[in-house]
Design goal:
About 20% of the residues lie in helices and about 25% in strands. It is of the alpha/beta class and about 260 residues long. It has one domain: 5-stranded Propeller (L-arginine/glycine Amidinotransferase, Chain A). The strands form five sheets. It has a three-stranded mixed beta sheet with strand order 2-1-15, with helices on one face. Strand 1, helix 1 and strand 2 form a beta-alpha-beta unit.
């Protein structure tokens, strides 16, 4: 078993704030319904608990409507937690607030200016890190994180994201060396040695599926993707994330798991 596919023990999440509709988005799906958002977030936490994780719930962060997309603020390895420097200037102070919660469990490192890095651009699969360069993560931020993970013995590969928010909007591990891949990424050379389950273009949002302790947690409402993922024979949980999707969010970005 690789370290990456070892069991998660903990997760850190943050409660959405009432200003969530003021967050950054390009989705064009309308404003989230706050009551429904809270209910979907609570169901997410309940799923993490049911899958065996201890969950620390941080309070809403007034003035930072995107703060519940907490994965962007750090990258957690078995040896170290790397505090990120989000690419959106309005989100940079979010990263500072997660340091105390992580320092209890990990040595802390950080991404320094002029580097920018969102955790949503960092995929750990089969002992290798893939670091996306995107609108939010620049080459310097990717280089800094790459040097940190290499210092602990992990190889890394940079992946240009092109259009789209984050690398994990399009590619995610389904455990070890199996990936869920949006159709535009099936030919990406960086993933040539991996088994890839390619999703239909109209269901590419389902590429943001989360592997937790041998169970796949996927967004509800994508039947073709569900059929493809079910062929792996793993337990599969569907969660409603319609309100997060309106804000360019998904299942992976709602927690830090380690």
């Amino acid at each position: 078993m690789t370290k990456e596919s070892a069991m998660f023990r903990r997760a850190i999440v943050r409660t959405p704030g009432p200003d969530a509709a003021a967050g950054l988005t390009t989705a064009g799906l309308g404003e989230p319904d706050f009551g429904r958002l809270l209910a979907q977030h609570a169901a997410y936490i309940e799923t993490l608990l049911r899958l065996g994780l201890e969950v620390a719930v941080l309070p809403a962060l007034p003035g930072f409507p995107d703060a519940y997309f907490i994965e962007d603020t750090a990258v957690v390895l078995p040896e170290v937690a790397v505090i990120s420097r989000p690419g959106a200037p309005s989100r940079r102070d979010e990263a500072v607030t997660v340091k105390p919660a992580l320092a209890e469990f990990r040595t802390i490192a950080r991404i320094e200016p002029p580097g920018t890095l969102d955790g949503g651009d960092v995929l750990w699969a089969g002992e290798r890190f893939f670091i996306g360069t995107s609108e939010r993560t620049n080459a310097e931020g990717a280089r800094q994180l790459g040097e940190i993970v290499a210092g602990y013995g992990y190889p890394w590969t940079g992946v240009p994201v092109g259009s789209g928010l984050h690398l994990k909007s399009f590619v995610n591990t389904l455990g070890g060396r199996i990936l869920a891949v949006a159709s535009g990424f099936e030919g990406a050379g960086a993933f040539g040695d991996y088994e890839r389950i390619v999703l239909d273009p109209e269901e590419e949002y389902a590429a943001n599926t989360l592997w937790i302790n041998g169970t796949l947690v996927m967004p509800a409402g994508f039947p073709a993707a569900k059929e493809k993922l079910s062929r792996l024979g793993l337990p599969l949980v569907e969660l409603e994330v319609s309100e997060m999707r309106k804000m360019d969010g998904g299942l992976t970005c709602l927690s830090l798991r380690f």
